[in-house]
Amino acid sequence: MRNLFALILILGIPLMAQEKYGVVIKSVENMHRNPDDMSEVVSQAIIGENLKILRSEKKDDKEWLYVETQDTYKGWIEAKSIRIYKDGEEKYASKGKVFEVESLIAYIYREEDVTKHKPLTFAPITAPLEVGECGERWCEVTLPSGEKGWIQKGDGFIRDANERRRLSLDKMIEHAMRFLGVPYLWGGKTPLGLDCSGFAQLVYKIAGLELLRDAYMQFDQPDLKKVEKGKEKKGDLVFFGREGGKISHVGIMINEKEFINATTHEKPIVQISNLSDPYWQKIYRGARRFPGLEMGRE
Predict the structure, then answer these.
(1) Which of 144, 168, 207, 236 could serve as a FRET partner for 126 with CA atoms 20 to 30 Å apart?
(2) C-alpha span between 157 and 170 (Å, rounded)
(3) What confidence score (pLDDT) does residue 16 get?
(4) 43 and 109 share a domain?
(5) CATH number at residue 218
(6) Domain interval for residue 152
(7) In angstroms, how far apart are the furthest CA atoms of the chain?
(8) Contact at 8 Å (CB) between 259 and 248?
(9) Under 8 Å between Cβ of 100 and 127
């Protein structure tokens, strides 16, 4: 059996005929274009995120998994960063109550004290954690590795596992502004570093809305409404790209003139830009609006 599994890894054969899933056990893990540390980072997955496992491969003594995220994005992740579910096992944080991280970064400790030991790990904003009992300041959580820990209540909120919180447009923009100054990182989708579409996707996710991963995908996303040029308003997604080329950049309007975006233009950080700036007007391709965005509940 061991030899058979090794052969499967070497040849990259699908793990099984039936669908296989796993959960990310590291705080943030890169997704690569190829099963190689030196290949392009196309996206990231965060702790507690459930992934569909499509196939496996062994290369240079490392085991890799080709995975699909919940937004259908695909990439290669080191197998050691994933806990593969046993047959019939329920997915992590898929029922009951979960603790969703709202701080940009939240530390998890081995006990209800921030001074006695270094944190067990950290979880970035939107990470879902299985939650147990909560006291006045602390909540007990079970990490996707199975390890127990404690997180401070002020780092997030408790919700039903299958129901995302919907925020108002104003609240969404407030959250977007929290990321000002975060460094630009190709493939990044956490406060440790963000690319343009990863930033837009993360902000919308915080508000309880789902965007696809890349800017060109978001531009063509069927449930987004096309916005006439000159009619842009707060919350709209604005897209950019060279004429005749693929959409390559996206930002979020914060008023009728300015947008917030993760960009390498002038400074490689999340920053506020002006849509009328000649640099942006030269490559502006249009805007999209999420129907019902202004009707968020909180």
Answers:
(1) 236
(2) 19
(3) 46
(4) no
(5) 3.90.1720.10
(6) 97-160
(7) 64
(8) no
(9) yes
Q: Average per-residue pLDDT in the chain?
A: 94
- Taking a C-beta distance cutoff of 8 angstroms, is the pair 64, 78 a contact? yes
Q: Note the pLDDT tens digit of each residue in 149-161.
A: 999 999 999 999 9
Main-chain phi, psi angles of 37, to 5 degrees: -60, -25
CB within 8 A of 282, min separation 6: which ones? none
**pLDDT at residue 293, as a whole number:** 82
Crossing angle between the packed helical segments 196-206 and 169-177, to the nearest 10 degrees: 130
Cα of 31 vs its chain's centroid, Å: 11
- Helical ranges in the chain per DSSP H: 2-11, 169-177, 196-206, 215-219, 278-281
Same-domain pairing of 29 and 125: no
- Residue 8 near residue 57, CB atoms below 8 Å: no
In the predicted structure, residue 8 carries a pLDDT above the cut 80? no
Domain boundary among 160, 189, 205: 160
pLDDT digit string (tens) for 52-70? 999 999 999 999 999 999 9
- Pair (177, 256) in one structural domain: yes
End-to-end CA distance of the chain: 53
Same domain for 62 and 110: no
Q: In this predicted model, what pLDDT tens digit does every residue of 257-269 receive, in sequence order?
A: 999 999 999 999 9
Higher per-residue confidence, 1 vs 237: 237
- Closest alpha carbon to 91 in 132, 144, 44, 133: 144
pTM exceeding the 0.90 threshold for the entire prediction? yes
